[in-house]
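#lab-general

N.A. 3:47 PM
ok so I finally got the sequence cleaned up, no stray characters, all 156 residues accounted for. can someone with queue access submit it? mine expired

B.Y. 3:52 PM
send it over

N.A. 3:53 PM
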Amino acid sequence: MFGNNKKASDDRSSIRRDSVNALNLIGQGTKITGNMTCQGDVRVDGELTGNIVAYSRIVIGPTGIVYGDIVCENADISGKIEGTIRVKELLNLKESATINGDITTQKLVVEAGAVFNGRCSMSNAENFSFDSPHAEKAAFANPARSSNASKSTKTE
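B.Y. 4:20 PM
back already:
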């Protein structure tokens, strides 16, 4: 009787471990508006307007676009980002990457052809926190969207 309860408990804990290693995929042609927080890896091949906090790895594919801030452990960027990027360990900018925003990371690899417009600071992983850098700012890092958002705020 007690052995069965232990087995059931072990099964539940393995499900939790597996869900942490889950891959979260935003496919090409998909557009999402909203913030995202996850334990597992994230791959964006579509468009996300919002902030991403991932306690693992983020991959922005060649067709991926993020209008917002990104906080993660490691990142491989091949697409476009309009916002701040904070990476605890390694940020890899592939040749097709376009970044318009500031970068904070411990290690940075930039392939020939990658475009980066912003400031870069190298930080120690000991001081890293997964807090979103601009949590109060919705995910309107895109200047065109930002000006529209500020206009609507002023009229209220």
